[in-house]
Amino acid sequence: MTEDQKLIKFQQRIDADEKIEPKDWMPEGYHKTLFRQISQHAHSEIIGMQPEANWVLRAPSLRAKKILLAKIQDEAGHGLYLYSAAETLGLDRSEMIDMLHKGKAKYSSIFNYPVLTWADIGAVGWLVDGAAIVNQTMLAKCSYGPYARAMLRICKEEGFHQRQGYEIMAKMMNGTEAQKEMAQDAMNRWWEPSLMMFGPHDTDSPNSKDSMQWKIKVESNDRLRQRFIDRTVEQAHHIGLKVPDANLKYNKETLHWETSDINWEEFKNVVNGNGPCNHQRLSHHIKCHNEGQWVREAALAFEAKQMSNPATIK
Ligand code: BYC
User: Fold this and answer.
1) Which residues, 6+ apart, have CB-to-CB distance to 78 below 8 Å?
2) Ligand 1 midpoint to CA 33 (Å)
3) Does the reported pTM lie above 0.70?
């Protein structure tokens, strides 16, 4: 088969909603885009543990601490599924981590903002995981089998994460004036960064055309962002939170909430490494990775010992 024929056949499989599996032929661009997105997604899950981990020791009750710990462990699991999905494309996890440390791979902009109060933990669960669910429910229909399958499990867990965040916010909005102010302040700081998670407008998104043709993404950045806005504005109003946008308006014809445009300068700045916590997040990751070198070496030595003595393999 010529290269052109392979391309036509590949697109026919995509159009017929067949899943592409690791050993199948795929165009170089498909491989590259998938690898970029899945590895970026994996890094986001792992870096995203940092702001929440800072609050484990400060959680206001044993119940809150247990829930937060379980959530953070879930995020680690998501990172591992995603690194495994990315590894099916031929690079191993250590290479991906090296790319992250050298600034050649990104992670989600949202994790470069500080988590200042307990209400921020609520806002992260409710808004950040809420935005992630909208995006990932779409990615569960992605044409690449390992990524789509990883998403199914991740989405189930994100549903719990979103609800625990909303519960924190609802409790605070039912509390003292100081707690209400704290919840509103967290909402004010996390609303716009959450909208940025969906990426640039469709017209400014260089990867969308190919990604949509290949069904890596099956819905556009703006469409998903609008879905998140419509859901979340109602949830905010339900517990008495104000959406921090003077131009927020319900359009009775389109049946959608309209918002101000996003501060794209800030988005670019954060994505390019100049957000409030970029340096802190990456240097912490590098430090922990280096400190964990002995664990990786011990695991390899153990594996080598097991392999050299098959009788010990259970
Ligand atoms: N942040 O052409 P576009 C979680 C980049 S973790 C940073 O639209 P694409 C959680 C984009 O990479 C879940 N960069 O790109 C964990 C591209 O640059 P490059 C996080 C962004 O890929 C712990 C350029 O901008 N979710 O839930 O078609 C605790 C142009 O964009 C961002 C994911 O990672 C951004 N927000 O679409 C709590 C979802 N947006 O690479 C919670 C997986 C855009 O060409 N990723 N860029 O240099 C995706 O779905 C897609 O990659 C995006 C962007 C929708 C984000």
Assistant:
1) 45, 150, 154, 157
2) 12
3) yes
